[in-house]
């Protein structure tokens, strides 16, 4: 007999569709000005999502700006996508506003996500792991993640948890 989490997993979508958004004022300014920039964390997230046989429906780069962040969440809700991933803006700098802007949209916050990510990160990078306020939550049957802006944080989060995303979306009512 299957355990309840296994039964939920088996009912979830096999392929999820993602919105992927990098939050970085410095990169956004370079993009806006037509200057060269890199988005290593966004590129890595895109690669991991596709390597795990999911789809990236939209990828964007925005500033550390609450209006832009809120607009991204609202666009995600209208899109039909299953998962919204923000990279960046989860630290303790005064400009890091992703978490406080996104959390009010949550119907259910998955506090265990942030706890587990910080625990895994602590094993890799030590006490600096406490500087991320990464979190996740569900809203309207969808999953929203706020990940660190560092490539290591993005990789740790996605490689360790992406297999659970279809389960989360299924339980949240998305499919």
Number of structurally distinct domains: 1
Evaluate the radius of gyration.
16 Å
Please indicate the percent range of residues in DSSP E strands (runs of 2 or more).
Answer: 15-25%
SS-derived structural category: alpha/beta
Q: What's the CATH H-level superfamily name?
A: MoaB/Mog-like domain
The side-by-side strand order for the widest beta sheet comes to 2-1-3-6-5-4
CATH architecture heading: 3-Layer(aba) Sandwich
Average predicted confidence as pLDDT: 94
- The biggest beta sheet, please? 6 strands, mixed
Q: What top-tier CATH class fits best?
A: Alpha Beta
List the helices and strands in order.
HEHHEHEHEHEEHH
Q: How many β strands by DSSP?
A: 6
User: How many helices?
Assistant: 8
Gross geometry: globular
User: What separation lies between the terminal Cα atoms?
Assistant: 22 Å
Please estimate the helix content. Answer: 40-55%
The CATH topology, please? Molybdenum Cofactor Biosythetic Enzyme, Chain A
Q: Which regions have little confidence, pLDDT < 50, spanning 5+ residues?
A: none
Spell out the key features of this protein.
175 residues; alpha/beta; 6 strands; 19% strand
Secondary structure layout plus pairing:
Elements: H1 4-11, E1 17-23, H2 25-33, H3 40-51, E2 55-62, H4 66-79, E3 83-87, H5 98-102, E4 108-109, H6 111-125, E5 135-139, E6 142-147, H7 151-161, H8 165-172
Parallel strand pairs: 1-2, 1-3, 3-6
Antiparallel strand pairs: 4-5, 5-6
Helix pairs in contact: 1-8, 3-7, 6-7
